Amino acid sequence: xxxxxxxxxxLDTFPKLLARNSNVRGDKPASREKDxxxxxTWSWSDVAGEIRALACGLAALGFQRGDxxxxxxxxxxxxxxxxTAAQAVGGVPVPVYQDSVAEEMQYVLEHAECRFAVVENQExxxxxxxxxxxxxxxxTIIYHFPRGMRHYTQDFLHxxxxxxxxxxxxxxxxxxxxxxEVARGKGDDLAIMLYTSGTTGxxxxxxxxxxxxxxxxxxxxxxxxxxxxDEMLAYLPMxxxxxxxxxxxxxxxxxxxxxxxESSDTVLDDLREIGPTYFFAPPRIFENIxxxxxxxxxxxxxxxxxxxxYFMDVAARVGRDILDGxxxxxxxxxxxxxxxxxxxxxxxxxxxxxxxxxxxTAGEAIGPDIFDFYRSLGLNxxxxxxxxxxxxxxxxxxxxxxxxxxxxxxxxGVDIRVEETGEVMFxxxxxxQAYYKNDDATRDTKTQDGWVHxxxxxxxxxxxxxxxIDRAKDVGKLNDGTLLAPKYLExxxxxxxxxxxxxxxxxxxxxxxxxxxIDLEAVGNWAxxxxxxxxxxxxxxxxxxxxxxIKDCVDKVNADLAGDEKLSGSQIKRFLIxxxxxxxxxxxxxxxxxxxxxxxxxxYGDLIAALYSDATSxxxxxxxxxxxxxxxxxxxxxxxxxxxxxxxxxARAA
Amino acid sequence: MAETAAHATPHRQIGDVIMxxxxxxxxxxxxxxxxNVSFDVREHEILAIxxxxxxxxxxxxxxxxxxxxxxxxxxxYKGKRRDTARTYESAEEGxxxxxxxxxxxxxxxxxxxxxxxxxLKMKKNWFWQAxxxxxxxxxxxxxxxxxxxxxxxxxxxxxxxxxxxRLPYGLQxxxxxxxxxxxxxxxxxxxxxxxxxxxxxxxxxxRYILDVNDEFGTTIILIxxxxxxxxxxxxxxxxxxxxxxxAEGVPDEVKANPDVIDAYLGVSHD
Lengths: 654, 270
What we know:
Chain A is an alpha/beta fold. Chain A is built from 21 helices and 28 strands. In chain A, strand 27 and strand 28 form a beta hairpin. Chain A is globular and about 80 Å long. The relative contact order of chain A is 0.08. With 270 residues, chain B is of the alpha/beta class. In chain B, 37% of the residues lie in helices and 23% in strands. Chain B is built from 10 helices and 10 strands. Chain B has helices at 57-64, 87-92, 110-116, 126-131, 135-153, 169-182, 199-216, 227-233, 251-256, 258-265, and strands at residues 17-28, 31-42, 46-50, 72-77, 80-81, 95-98, 187-191, 219-223, 236-241, 244-249. In chain B, the strands form 2 sheets. A 6-stranded mixed β-sheet of chain B has the order 6-7-8-3-9-10, sandwiched between helices. In chain B, helix 3 runs parallel beside helix 6. Chain B starts with 16 loop residues before the first strand and ends in a 5-residue tail after the last helix. Mean pLDDT of chain B is 85; it is low at 1-10. The chains are: A alpha/beta (654), B alpha/beta (270).
């Protein structure tokens, strides 16, 4: 942005920060990856050499300033390096969600007009080859892992290592090329294009400048006191803005080390081995870890269970106060200290969180029970609120003042205001430049003077903490005028371990109704303990016992809502358990696993109609797409149950 | 699209005959398990042996790797007659196999199971082994590196340290394949590698078999009941019925052979 101060004098792009890190802390680890069972480490000077070779290799292959480089794959150091390599020679990396099907990739690559792509392996190469005839601009594909690629003879396919070799020769015959190109980069150059997952409609290409990324990363890193001794595990999609700011932005700014997991299946093992000091995870991961712990404790010996429960009670009572530096009695402190030795310490060690100084969670609301569990163990887990358009940070919960119902105070450098409509707006150094080739959307989202619409409804409380209720456009009213915040209800349902996903309806209707997805692992475990046999998700979801179990959850939510004057009218009257899990491959969720409400209500129109009729069941048939692209049809007869409506006055008793 | 079909038609060079089975007969008392069976195995190919239950398929594999010794006929491997060879000799000559019923060490981890496949390659004697530090450690590290390559190849990183007994069936089969691969075989015998698997597990296994053949050039003899798998992966098929060879040829030929249809595929033809 013109007029904004540059990030740091002379250090206004990632390639320049890389050169600084290589000079200042050349021997410190920069990247780690587990390869053949052993953690391989690259120092900052190693990384600088690798990136230089790749950048020169790209140049030798004809990569020009301003060209877009698609990056597709799991978190791998080599793919992160490709980002910086592209930036070094004036190009723009465009990371793509690695589990996208070929058509989704085609849209992004076509829209971003990518000439080059760096991909992880054969799987991604195959996907690109499948749609290549529809991507006339795509000229060159570079792949990292050679496995299975021996018989691919196309001359536009290059092995990553070969490109680097070519680059090293090119570098020798063109001395000064790399440094010259790096020096030409400026803070207001386009640094990266990130495609939003698109809760509604086609993904939009968010353009962020170096200033956006570097200033935002730097402000937050300073606020949290991150140093080059920190270490993090990068396992969230590279195409997500958070990964770019945490694993690239903050790593380059502070010089800390980023480790990449061996594979997506081994994340929890890798977490234990790396023991990151700085950790980001969506609520789902924290839920999974807690579920695993709970299940394993139930299988433990009696005296171990007793010890666990005793000390977890102590932690639940005083753990958070001790973490926040508030007062606690001496006897509680002694018990907590004992608990740390006997339970919390070993537990954190097993989970790989012993060294964690700072943890963030965002993306979805986290259940208060789950959030409190981690904080009571002494882990400084905090919620943040952000968006791609803000280069992540809008608000962060401040140390020592954590409230489970708020997403915290504005991050450094961020201004927030709430419109009369209830919509939250922000302005910050991280505000995006524009949506690529979509001026209409840019104008709708960003005002002339740089304020950005978040699309979320919320309010600031008297202490300046921001509370988010729901997407502004989703907040609706029942026919009788009662306020309806679907997301709020859904989150309440999802806080039960048995519910993995919920979709509520009710806008312009007489009452609220809900679709529910059960959590196969948690409910499966529950069923096993009761000797309830089932064949799979659909079967389990149709069991009357399971329906009763979910009804209990719905009743509890209703009782809870009855206590809230504004929301007591929006209790859930009727619900059903869906016969299949909502899936991103079917377009029902975004790639970041948010529900696409319009797709769901369109696809299951019959079910919604049944929920708003007297029917007690509804037959359903739906086509599902498997990961390999095959489709199949699932048939089921869904039972509809009624939730118990609690009168507002009776709430306290319930 | 031809470009993406690289898997379906591997571009391997099928080489010369690596194994010759000549007029092999094997009987247990009055049961003639194999009756005058002959066929060739060529280098780098995938040869499937099919046939109804009790046709003698597993007996054939057992003769090849020296567990049974045929009463008549001869087996040549790399030009050497070996129908009286012992099992450990065939292992030393580069023949590895997997079993119809999984035969892993259930209490040991995936990694340890794969390391047992390296046993024959460990050359340091018991003295050094007992001493451990020094040459034996160096050797172990080399073998561990090889085992990790296989773990990487079969994508079983996540279960590296899991005791095999706790794994689902499909993964156990994959570990067993890994152990066979650890011996770096020239000839790999797979006895029903996909029996009892669901569709997805089968698909994975087929991919790994093709990858092994493609990446390491390993010759593979495969016993399998799933016809679609056999027709997809094998270069040639040998059909056995009551110990006799019924047919031999490329999958399409075999599929069209009326004798085979009668004996095995069970489709009526009028």
